[in-house]
Amino acid sequence: MMMTTTSSFLWSCSLLPSQGPNRQTQWKRHEKVLSFSLSCSPKSTVKFYMNGALVSRQLSRKVAVSGVVRAGFELKPPPYPLDALEPHMSRETLDYHWGKHHKTYVENLNKQILGTDLDGLSLEEVVLLSYNRGNMLPVFNNAAQAWNHEFFWESIQPGGGGKPSGDLLRLIERDFGSFDDFVERFKAAASSNFGSGWTWLAYKANRLDVANAVNPLPKEEDKKLVIVKTPNAVNPLVWDYSPLLTIDTWEHAYYLDFENRRVEYINTFMEKLVSWETVSTRLESAMARAVQREQEGTDTEDEENPDDEEPEVYLDDASEEVD
Amino acid sequence: SIIKEMAASSAVTADYVLKPPPYSLDALEPFMSRQTLEFHWGKHHRAYVDNLKKQVLGSDLEGKTLDHIILNTYNNGDLLPAFNNAAQAWNHEFFWESMKPGGGGKPSGELLALLERDFTSYEKFYDEFNAAAATQFGAGWAWLAYADNKLKVMKTPNAVNPLVLGSFPLLTIDVWEHAYYLDFQNRRPDYIKTFMNNLVSWEAVSSRLHAAKAASSSSA
Questions:
Q1: Residues of A in contact with B77 (CB under 8 A)
Q2: What gap in Å lies between CA A169 and CA A206, rounded to an integer?
Q3: A256 interaction partners in chain B (CB closer than 8 Å)
Q4: What strands lie across the sheet with A10-12, from one edge to the other?
Q5: Considering only CB atoms, which residues of chain B are within 8 Å of chain A?
Q6: A135 alpha carbon, distance to own chain's centre
Q7: Shortest CA distance from B159: residue in chain A
Q8: What percent of chain A has pLDDT over 70?
Q9: Which residue numbers delimit the Manganese/iron superoxide dismutase N-terminal domain (chain B) (predicted)?
Q10: Interval B115-123 mean pLDDT
């Protein structure tokens, strides 16, 4: 294992999970990720070099200074007190939704991965690996739900709602016609997602409609905002999209405040809770990442894979051999 | 087909009507609260029925029985629009009738004999049913069902039920969160145990088994 670190880490307060530009590096399970605890906000992303590639990792776990990675994802609190979203989302809802549901996903995830090969990977890596092309491995539901809920708390804020601005508004208007059209379509998707699931605004910057080991580089017109609805624990990371915003439409998300009136919950979410700042920040990062990927793609397109292996995106749980 | 016959002879015959449970809304206390019945039956179940009515109005499904709609909109899993409301209306009526005040305990007679035959023991069936209900991730239902002269445990997502999968439903537990949220929050296993220990109407299950066997043998 070769790891070189830059003399100083690049700190950024990104609200995005890591989506390393070099997916090949990301999936090798032999390399342990080292995360370092910091004094700054838990939303920080640390970037470092590993095997010559710039890799970023969201800090989601405390580790010993010696670099030994202890198992255990944390239940991060929302970035506001549990009663701060009243009256639009009650304290009681946060107590249950964060304090029991989200907490249980994290605890069960930790039990599931302790001592396994997944121990030591970032949350996003666990999600992507265990999705396994839709034939989900046992840990997927807990991992994805842990990821989804953290993303959800950060998607809303006290005094939220209103309209986005800047690049985000420009792209919304470009890809949906108008902000109102976008809102209508987002609400329609969320209310028609039967059963348990999530509805997302995501930035899509890949050429094909499905994630693939090697994608042709996207053109400008392939990069766009999309609304997707997913069932149960699935999220758009698994299709190589960059999630920007989500609404949880599992019943537990709105039952105490709205009973079965999901439409009212969605309206309240859009009008009073959405944090457009957060969505904008995520968009900026997503666009930057897309550009970075293209640059790297251009650089390495004709090079031979140094390890003489095929890029591996999905891990076959039966073996670690590559095709 | 046998299923269509069985569907026709099943206890669920009230079409597009929000039938009240066969007990008062507080009769299942303390195991299932009146508040839960008020929401679950009074709002969720009611909404499925109301929305189904709106949906079929003016379409070629109008006037058809609930069972017909379910079987014809399942479409091998590529669900047509009316399926969710129709199946949920059916499932909920079946669910209320699967429970009774003072329920739970063990079955007896032929039902017990078949459970012991097909699961080795009642306890093994209990565990399997519990596990199915607990592991149906997201929204759905767990079932005891009858097919090919055998009892089996099934779990289904969202609105799907054994009718569309070629089996006769005998018992169900609703594991959508709205079914247990007010009483158990996220503690689904506690809800399932309470259902099994204190709510299941084995009489209803037995009479459904009887009907299933009669329907099977009459078309044999």
A1: none
A2: 21
A3: 181
A4: A10-12, A45-50, A53-58
A5: 39, 43-44, 47, 84, 137-140, 157-159, 176-178, 181-182, 185-186
A6: 20
A7: A195
A8: 66
A9: 16-100
A10: 98
* Record: contact A231-B181, CB cut-off 8 A: no
List of E strands, B73-215: 140-147, 150-157, 168-174
Q: What is the pLDDT of residues B128-153, one digit of tens each?
A: 999 999 999 999 999 999 999 999 99
Can you name the residues that pair with B150 across neighbouring β-strands? B147
| pTM greater than 0.90 (yes/no) | no
At A19 the pLDDT is: 42
Tell me how crowded residue B218 is: count the other CB atoms within 10 A of its CB: 10
Contact B177 A255 (CB under 8 A): yes
Question: B164, B70 in Cβ contact below 8 A?
Answer: yes
Cβ contact A103:A82 at 8 Å: no
> A29-78, pLDDT tens digit by residue?
333 333 333 333 334 444 444 434 445 444 443 333 334 445 589 999 99
> Inter-chain contact B185–A96, Cβ cutoff 8 Å?
yes
Phi (first) and psi of residue A126, to 5 degrees: -60, -45
**pLDDT digit string (tens) for A144-161?**
999 999 999 999 999 999
Instruction: Check residue A322 and report its DSSP letter.
Output: -
Q: Which chain A residues touch B44 with a CB distance below 8 Å?
A: 260
The per-residue pLDDT for range A255-274, each reduced to its tens digit, is 999 988 999 999 999 999 99
Nearest to A252 among B44, B84, B177 (CB): B177
Q: Which ipTM did the prediction report?
A: 0.90
Q: Which two tokens stand for residue B124?
A: 């093994």
Tell me if A127 sits within 8 A of A144, measured CB to CB.
yes
Residue in A100, A194, A196 nearest the CB of B84: A194
Give A50→chain B minimum CA distance, Å.
37
Chosen from B137, B141, B191 to mutate, greatest number of chain A CBs within 10 A: B137
How many CB atoms within 10 Å of residue A82?
Answer: 18
Cβ count near B112 (within 10 Å): 15
